[in-house]
Amino acid sequence: MPKMTIVVGTMYGGALDVAEQVKPLFEQAGYAVTVSEQPSLSDVSGDDDLTLFCLSTTGSGDFPGNIVPFVRSLKDQSPSLTGLRYGLIALGDSSYGDTFCGAGRELDELLASMGAQRLGERLEIDAMETFMADDAAVPWVEEWIVAQQLKVV
After folding, report:
1. Do 81 and 43 form a contact (C-beta atoms < 8 A)?
2. Which of 51, 49, 2 is nearest to 22 (CA)?
3. For residue 76, how many other CB atoms are within 10 A of its CB?
4. What are the DSSP E strand ranges found in 83-126?
5. Which DSSP symbol is given to 51?
6. Does residue 55 sit in helix, strand or coil?
7. What is the pTM of this model?
8. Which of 59, 60, 99, 116 could form a disulfide with 81 if both were Cys (CB 3.0 to 4.6 A apart)?
9. In this predicted structure, what is the pLDDT of residue 82?
10. Beta bridge mates, 37
11. What confidence score (pLDDT) does residue 153 get?
């Protein structure tokens, strides 16, 4: 059974809610899913087939507190992540202008700089347009799963 880790970065629970809403979609597709609310480097350097990052942006483009130690470890240790295949859902608020989805964009760049491979486009969910983030995330994840399964066949 393929493995999937959903790495969550959240301040008020919105990104965790999205993770909990999409987890059953991966399970129905045959993945053994783990949701990591206190992520560490072992969450991205193991033998998982796929990883999904689901994170909010706080303040002026900042990472939520629970994922800061993970990001700090990435920056300090610069591990090779050439085996990491991932998707990314970034939650933000476009009224913050240039820092909209800043945490998701910064994490995406950081992962790419370490050799990780993003599969598909990053989903950016704007709180100004989408009241319930899972309304945007669920259809995106459904399409993302199908795209990954087609690549395996």
Report:
1. no
2. 51
3. 9
4. 85-92, 117-118, 123-126
5. E
6. strand
7. 0.93
8. 116
9. 92
10. none
11. 41
